[in-house]
Amino acid sequence: MTISPDAIVSIIADEAGLDASQLQPEATLEELNIGSLDVASALFALEDRFGIEIDPGSIAPSSTIGEITRRITELAAK
C-alpha cells in the first residue's frame, strides 16, 4: 500500500490539534509541542487507517516529521 506523506501529516495534525501546515519535515515533535499522549493517539490512528503496526519506541520526541513519514511509508511498503 502506498501512503502519501500528506495523509500521514494530516492524521498527526488532527490528533495533535495543529494545522497541517505547521508540520514541516524538519520540525521535531518536541518543537511542535506534540506530547506523548498525542503521539500515541496519532500512532493508533495511523495503524488503524493504514493497517500497519508501529513500534512506539521508534518515535522519540526528537523525531522529525520527515523521519516519521519515511518510517510509516516504509512500514506500509512491506
What characteristics describe this protein?
mainly alpha, 78 residues, 3 helices
In words, what does this structure look like?
With 78 residues, this protein is mostly helical. The protein contains 3 helices and no strands. Helix 1 (5-16) packs across helix 2 (36-50). The radius of gyration is 11 Å and the shape is globular. The protein starts with a helix and ends with a helix. The mean pLDDT is 94.
In brief, what are we looking at here?
With 78 residues, this protein is mainly α. The chain is built from three helices and no strands. The model has no long low-confidence stretch (mean pLDDT 94).
Count of beta strands: 0
Major β-sheet annotation = none
What is the average per-residue confidence, as pLDDT, rounded to a whole number?
A: 94
Shape: globular
Strand content: under 5%
Amino-to-carboxy terminus distance: 8 Å
User: What order do the helices and strands follow?
Assistant: HHH
C-alpha-based Rg, rounded: 11 Å
